[in-house]
Amino acid sequence: MVSSNHRRGKATQPRTGEPAAPFIPAAPAAVSERWLLAVSEPGMGRLALRARERLNLLCDAGSHIGTSLDVTRTAEELTEIAVPRFADYAGVDLYDGVLRGQEPTTPEEVLRRAAFAGIREGSGLHPVDAPILLLPSTPQARSMATGQPVIEPVLSTDIGWLAQDPERGRTACEHGIHSLVAVPMRARGMTLGVVSFYRSAARNPFEEDDLALAEELVNRAAVCVDNARRYAHERAITRELEDATTSLRHSLDHQRRFTADASHELRTPLAGLRIQLEEAQLHPDQTDLADLLRHALTDVDRLQAILTDLLSLARSEARPLTALEPVDLAELVEADIARRIGDPHPVRLDLVPGALADVVHIQICRVLNNLLNNAQRHAAHRVTVAVRRTGDIAELSVIDDGPGVRASEREHIFQPFTRLDSARSRDRGGTGLGLAIARDIARAHHGTLHVEDAAPTGARFVLRLPLAGT
Questions:
Q1: pTM above 0.85, yes or no
Q2: Span 25-55, pLDDT tens digits
Q3: Is residue 326, in this structure, part of any structural domain at all?
Q4: Pairing label, strands 356-359, 325-328
């Protein structure tokens, strides 16, 4: 039988030849009760599970947000991570400039919904690409103003949120959406936009301890959005530099060709004039002075015409349009035709009044005269000038009944110093700059000039300009 002292934990004398048993004191009753209370406290398991879910959410956010250097896709990745694990609906609203790769300019700049995700359709919340101009009373505007997340646990009574769009707000509440967390998206001291997380009847409203998780999610996404924005901006600058370099190279090539062509055109009459003068100097007795002067003046006239057209072309390319005024093209044509004399072919007019365009009067007269000179050189019997209004376009066309222009040459003839085969002769052809000048003037007026077939034969040069006020 064991003694009562042994049962109480007191040491007993060992038997002869047996080792002494170790002394183990009994645990006080109060300590045992506190330990049992710790492992059985209500809610500890739920809190541990919730903490693990949040940790997994942040880990997944780190690996899934920012997989591409695209601003919109990065915003979409944030909503895909948040819904439905943290919220039932999530929308990312960014400044328009940020979506274009630029830095945000002013707080008054319009936001645009870059991404949206939800557990169901018909929520009434703004869809993707919707412009949003926040009222100062909204939770989103307050969060952006303070730089801190804002929680609204009961949206149905939040007057500031409902005032932004009462109809959408009522639809969202009827859909079951009841609480909101708005978090500003900031990176490098700049506010890029705002993120809205919503919960509906499927889960409990947001609580204060949800703010830290929402802010952490948005902060991680903000760094990725800013990186994507800066990449897009640098890529756009690189593209602009490449385009500028290509344009400059083409411009230099064009200038070289133009200089070579102009030199050739100027040297031809000069060479003819020099030959005539040298022959007259060598054989003065055999020179017909009247014939020499006639040919010399012809060459001088050609030189003067080329120089005049070169100056006009340079001015049309270098000067911006000034002194625009609404002009009725029918009245302009009628007045200009009345001043022309010495045309080899009669000009028929087909004019419809009311085709008004904002133009520089003298420049459009130059276009008309260049087109008429070209038509008179190629016409067989007559030339027609027509004016009409087509939709929001004023159209002026000059038509001849000559051989026409082959399809392969219809763009080529608008290049400087270009002539058709039938006009290669310097005596019969023009300076080779008239059509080039006419097209440059048309483009400067935001219009077009092209050539097409005329019926039954010939060429139809068509100038199209925007109507006045459009």
A1: no
A2: 444 444 444 444 444 455 566 677 777 888 8
A3: yes
A4: antiparallel
